[in-house]
From TrEMBL:
<dbReference type="InterPro" id="IPR001564">
    <property type="entry name" value="Nucleoside_diP_kinase"/>
</dbReference>
<keyword id="KW-0418">Kinase</keyword>
<dbReference type="GO" id="GO:0006228">
    <property type="term" value="P:UTP biosynthetic process"/>
</dbReference>
<keyword id="KW-0963">Cytoplasm</keyword>
<keyword id="KW-0460">Magnesium</keyword>
<dbReference type="Pfam" id="PF00334">
    <property type="entry name" value="NDK"/>
</dbReference>
<dbReference type="GO" id="GO:0006183">
    <property type="term" value="P:GTP biosynthetic process"/>
</dbReference>
<feature type="binding site">
    <location>
        <position position="59"/>
    </location>
    <ligand>
        <name>ATP</name>
    </ligand>
</feature>
<feature type="binding site">
    <location>
        <position position="114"/>
    </location>
    <ligand>
        <name>ATP</name>
    </ligand>
</feature>
<keyword id="KW-0067">ATP-binding</keyword>
<keyword id="KW-0547">Nucleotide-binding</keyword>
<keyword id="KW-0479">Metal-binding</keyword>
<dbReference type="GO" id="GO:0004550">
    <property type="term" value="F:nucleoside diphosphate kinase activity"/>
</dbReference>
<feature type="active site" description="Pros-phosphohistidine intermediate">
    <location>
        <position position="117"/>
    </location>
</feature>
<dbReference type="InterPro" id="IPR036850">
    <property type="entry name" value="NDK-like_dom_sf"/>
</dbReference>
<dbReference type="GO" id="GO:0005737">
    <property type="term" value="C:cytoplasm"/>
</dbReference>
<feature type="binding site">
    <location>
        <position position="93"/>
    </location>
    <ligand>
        <name>ATP</name>
    </ligand>
</feature>
Length: 141
């Protein structure tokens, strides 16, 4: 399988719960490497731009308000099949439907406060990594 990169965000709920390290452990235990990382308080404009694909959806305002409710931890992950592997580690969007042992099953509280974001395709992974990181800030290893 090809080595890929994906964009991951530990959302404000999980940062507030102090489980950044526990979530990073899931990535590392699955063979994904953190190749870029920063903690950031997103502005409303940054959050709206990041989730622009959802701008017309009824949940867009709630999503943006939640994503700016506190700092987030943003990272690029690298590894074999990283995009799908990260989505598998995350579990379903709604934690009530997330499989046992997934990040959302273990750390998320609701469909809004669902602990993590992960890119859903190779095309979006490239766009999302570039949204937050200059290429000089990504340390392939
Ligand atoms: P994410 O983009 O954050 O990784 O989540 P996802 O791919 O699993 O879900 P997506 O469909 O991209 O939706 C983005 C975020 O919007 C919220 N959402 N709310 N109320 C609803 O029906 C609803 N649907 C989605 C979730 O917080 C989701 O993570
Ligand atoms: Mg998504």
């Amino acid at each position: 399988m090809a080595i890929e990169r994906t964009l991951s965000i530990v959302k404000p709920d999980a940062v507030a719960k102090n489980v950044i390290g526990k979530i990073y452990d899931r990535f590392e235990s699955a063979g994904l490497k953190v190749v870029a990382a920063k903690m950031k308080q997103l502005s409303r404009a940054e959050a709206e731009g990041f989730y622009a694909v959802h701008a017309a959806r009824p949940f867009f305002n709630d999503l943006v308000n939640f994503m700016i409710s506190g700092p987030v931890m943003i990272q690029a992950l690298e590894g074999e099949g990283a995009i799908l592997k990260n989505r598998d580690l995350m579990g379903a969007t709604n934690p009530k439907e997330a499989a046992a042992g997934t990040i959302r099953a273990d750390f998320a509280d609701s469909i809004d406060a669902n602990a993590v974001h992960g890119s859903d395709s190779a095309e979006n992974a490239a766009i999302e990594i570039a949204y937050f990181f200059a290429s000089s800030e990504v340390y392939s290893r």
